[in-house]
Sequence to fold (117 residues):
Amino acid sequence: MLVEVLKSKLHRLSVTEADLNYIGSITIDKLLLEAAGIIPGEHVYIVNNNNGARLDTYVIEGPAGSGMVCLNGAAARLAQVGDVIIVMTYAQMTPEEAMTFKPKVVFPDTATNHLIS
Fold:
């Protein structure tokens, strides 16, 4: 049997753009993705702290150091620029692996979406 556990989390990102005319997904600064161990195309879950909306989509890598967090396509209807979101990924593993697994949790500067040293 496998269980699903939190693999990584970007806690309290500020939405910088919302683009209805894009095919879909969320674009996130490459440095944030690397810090959390999230790969382009990976399935992510998103929670909007401002309005309670929850959605899942996939990640597109944005320019490194840009602070970009852009909800694309239909997801753009669920957030406005300035909203604070949490982005999470999950992984399946055996219960034995899950007992010792430590997720990567990143707390960037909410105002700029840059990593805090």
